[in-house]
Amino acid sequence: MKGIAIGLVMVLIMGFSIASVKAGENNNEEQLFKTKCSACHSYEIPLSMKKDRKGWEETVKLMQQKKPNFISDKDAQKIIDFLVSQSNNKKK
């Protein structure tokens, strides 16, 4: 019985750790988004929009073209992931 209780506690701790890492990743994506996007416009503008992944990919690619070398492809992917997650949280 004691072994089961310890196992359950370990599973719970691992679950919280994974959730914390994911929350941290989202915070990093959000900070990157705010830093890069607010260099040219208010970051509230894209947050007010609802687009699917393809729509955000097209938008971010356009932003990359407007200011070459400011948003790397790696950063662009993180920004897109963040914007998609925000769009998915909006009511339809």
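^ that was protein a. below is b, sequence first then the tokens
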Amino acid sequence: MRKLINDILDLARLESGKKKRVIEEVGLGKIALYVYKGLALKAAENKLKFELNYPEKFKFAADKGEMETMFSNLLSNAVKYNKQGGEIKLIIEKKGEFVSIFYSDTGIGISKEDQQRFFGEFVRIKNEYTRNIEERGLGLSILKKIAAIYNGEVKVESTYNVRSVFLVKIKEPSLVAQSAVPVN
């Protein structure tokens, strides 16, 4: 219940444009690793393999909390919706003025029909694989909103019962104001 309330509050803050942001240099790879370590127990139960590639010294100007939320929403889905003994790959690269976050898993995938509504709020994909998975249906909607704040986008390619691939592209906000930057 607490996670649902926090997700709803995050969503409301993002949509209102009134969320206080602290823009600072952060290590995206280190944030992703930190988030994954929080999921490591569940990943170990499912015997998941995790591969993370990122430029070691690369820094990105962002709100650390937003980046943690972004990686949390991606990686928690990777753990929840993966197959026993599956794989999760996360690659972070600087490409021109954008950072590309490439994510793939060997999970249950998403049908073409369900991909049409995948990023909606409170959307839960129901099928034989997801029946017993606890889900709030807000994570990917929040992910898409965070990407938009960073002048980016989220794309997904998925094959049902095979795998999912996400590409998140984000761009650094102006570093002119380093703290309490409005979302607008």
